[in-house]
From TrEMBL, chain A:
<dbReference type="Pfam" id="PF08352">
    <property type="entry name" value="oligo_HPY"/>
</dbReference>
<dbReference type="GO" id="GO:0015833">
    <property type="term" value="P:peptide transport"/>
</dbReference>
<keyword id="KW-0067">ATP-binding</keyword>
<dbReference type="InterPro" id="IPR050319">
    <property type="entry name" value="ABC_transp_ATP-bind"/>
</dbReference>
<keyword id="KW-0813">Transport</keyword>
<dbReference type="GO" id="GO:0016887">
    <property type="term" value="F:ATP hydrolysis activity"/>
</dbReference>
<dbReference type="InterPro" id="IPR003439">
    <property type="entry name" value="ABC_transporter-like_ATP-bd"/>
</dbReference>
<protein>
    <submittedName>
        <fullName>Oligopeptide transport system ATP-binding protein</fullName>
    </submittedName>
</protein>
<dbReference type="InterPro" id="IPR027417">
    <property type="entry name" value="P-loop_NTPase"/>
</dbReference>
UniProtKB/TrEMBL annotation, chain B:
<keyword id="KW-0813">Transport</keyword>
<dbReference type="Pfam" id="PF00005">
    <property type="entry name" value="ABC_tran"/>
</dbReference>
<dbReference type="InterPro" id="IPR003593">
    <property type="entry name" value="AAA+_ATPase"/>
</dbReference>
<dbReference type="GO" id="GO:0016887">
    <property type="term" value="F:ATP hydrolysis activity"/>
</dbReference>
<dbReference type="GO" id="GO:0015833">
    <property type="term" value="P:peptide transport"/>
</dbReference>
<dbReference type="InterPro" id="IPR027417">
    <property type="entry name" value="P-loop_NTPase"/>
</dbReference>
<feature type="domain" description="ABC transporter">
    <location>
        <begin position="5"/>
        <end position="256"/>
    </location>
</feature>
<keyword id="KW-0547">Nucleotide-binding</keyword>
<comment type="similarity">
    <text>Belongs to the ABC transporter superfamily.</text>
</comment>
Amino acid sequence: MAELLEVRNLVKHFPVTRGVLFKKTVGHVRAVDGVSFTLAAGETLGVVGESGCGKSTLAQVLMMLEPPTAGEALFEGRPMFAMRGNALRDLRRNMQIVLQDPYTSLNPRMTVGDIVGEPFEIHPEVAPRGSRAARVRELLDVVGLNPEHINRYPHQFSGGQRQRIGIARALALRPKVIVCDEPVSALDVSIQAQVMNLLRELQGEFGLAYVFIAHDLSVVRHLSDRVAVMYLGKIVEIGTEDEIYRHPTHPYTQALLSAVPVADPALRGQRDVIRLTGDVPSPIDPPSGCRFRTRCWKAQDVCAEQEPALVDRGGHPSACHFAEERSVVP
Amino acid sequence: MTALLEVEDLHVEFRTRDGVARVLNGVGYHVDAGETLAVLGESGSGKSVTAQTVMGILDTPPAYVMRGAVRFHGEDLLSATAERRREVRGEGIAMIFQDALSALNPVFTVGFQIEEQLRLRRGMSRSEARKRAVELLDLVRIPHARQRVREYPHQFSGGMRQRAMIAMSLALDPEVLIADEPTTALDVTVQAQIMDLLAEIQRERHMGLVLITHDLGVVAEVADRIVVMYAGRIVEQADAVSLFRSPGHPYTEALMKSLPRLDAKGTTLDTIKGLPPSLLRIPPGCPFHPRCPRAEAVCSVDVPPQERLGFGRTSACHFAEEVLNG
């Protein structure tokens, strides 16, 4: 089956500068440092990792909001980063983004109708001028908002409703891929479930593919077909939802999963919990070899000398010299 | 026996330009020494405002305490003098906050901020206070405490800042520690470290711990007892094990069902329809009735009383027994 999106060795470094007048580059933040994955039509790839692992930078580069430092991405087989003019406009139509914070990602001075309809200004071929209002109403209805509220402003909506506005905007151009960057993490539990159900329904209805970025492992499991685990700019393990959650082989994935508190007091003290020590190292000067070795209980000399490749080890790709299955989710 | 800390029938309103928001509508709970009480609720449920009332750090205006009592060893703090309240703050009851970066003062070193209270309240000299600050940072396992005591908050990572704030809150050996979403801003691996640390310190010092959170997972891991809040009321209270085994209020039940699970890939999540009510216009009767799957006519008329369910459990639902028995 043809891949919709194929990312090869994507790198994004941000320069760190010193001085005001004569800015001198003194280092680089290696936010994304060689990431490869594929995404099929109608599929959800979950990307999990802790703050600073590069998951949001990945979203920015995929959306071409930031130019990549190196690497390639193919959309339907054509290199994305070289696209200009009409090809690029076409690509942007097909790839949309939903952002984390529904309070800052909507312009407070625009009505909901203007926000959701704005994409049509740039892509008039999708909805001719006369039919726009009707199309916007339809979109509001699809995401579960009252179409009568088309003339209201963002502040008149709750957080969950605002996130629905953001989703309607992303849907406006009938894209093939939506990158969701922490779309539910700012929402309360009872509202989070509503938005997650909506994302799932829309996927079924419109055949959307999602790149679903989140730090909440339960949320990611719920929505994803495949999952990539990131640590310090690299994917350390990638596989199907079942492979990652039931048969994780990378120590970081295992530690991450075991650290999630489980809503069942009966399991207190009975779970296999791996406690990591220390913090994530700085992405400006990541550890040599395996980046996780400074916090890993399995680390040996080879881990500092040789970077483990992300290759199939025991069923699915895992970037650990000592990859071994360990089931940590009860 | 008097409880270590007891909140009774607390009513707080916020007078805003848009009207009066009834933020707390009769909140009561208690915590004893060595016990962990979790206060569970979503945004706007009043869990933080209750804590701020206990600490006496609400701003008036807009906040007004209309009724109720906060008793520490039986002494009502709401009617105490400002001086007495200051004494209790820090020494009797201390509090840590969600966002350590904004809770710490950016222009003073971490050490200075810990030492300040020791010098003012304990009359320690600079060098004594410094020595104690280093011990406290050691206690919360900040590596190289001797050097780090001289650093500023921005030089600390998120987890380290939270540790520094815990150290600061322990400086005057409080009997009760209120932790308001202490790990919400942290990553899961760091969250686990901080929760372990809090549990250990609580055990060693036999403190009462009030843990305010929206995270059912965190609650399940550490709480002895749980109170669930909704729209400024306590809708249910129970010990942790029985609450998770069989919730006694439809809101608690619905909250648990709407949670995506780590141990299974679900299909469609059960949701709670609608939104939490605006505190400017709380619905009559049970505040949860417009969203409740079990609501009947009586629910929109009568405010349900705290129904006793045995084993110290209560539920503010007209159909509490039925909810409990499934």
